[in-house]
């Protein structure tokens, strides 16, 4: 016999606030503490999430982990249209590409 929890559809940030008992996300110290990150990772790992930043093109992904670094510090190499490769943070990328300010 297998037991599976069903979760209501909601933004990931709202789910995180519920899991970590955060009443106001704006009062949350950034980044998450290690204990908060571990607790949240245990709850979200394996769940499917649907991204909404691409308009009508909705994609679903299964969560495999939560990084130690916040989006404002996590970097990756981005190849520009000119062929040049630059370092970008995840936060910079979403701000530049989608005009989104990540929380």
Automatic annotation (TrEMBL):
It holds the Pfam family PAZ. Residues 11-103 form the PAZ domain. It comes from the Eukaryota. Keywords: Initiation factor, Protein biosynthesis, RNA-binding, RNA-mediated gene silencing. GO terms for biological process: regulatory ncRNA-mediated gene silencing. InterPro entries: PAZ_dom, PAZ_dom_sf. GO terms for molecular function: RNA binding; translation initiation factor activity. Belongs to the argonaute family. Ago subfamily. This is Eukaryotic translation initiation factor 2C, 4.
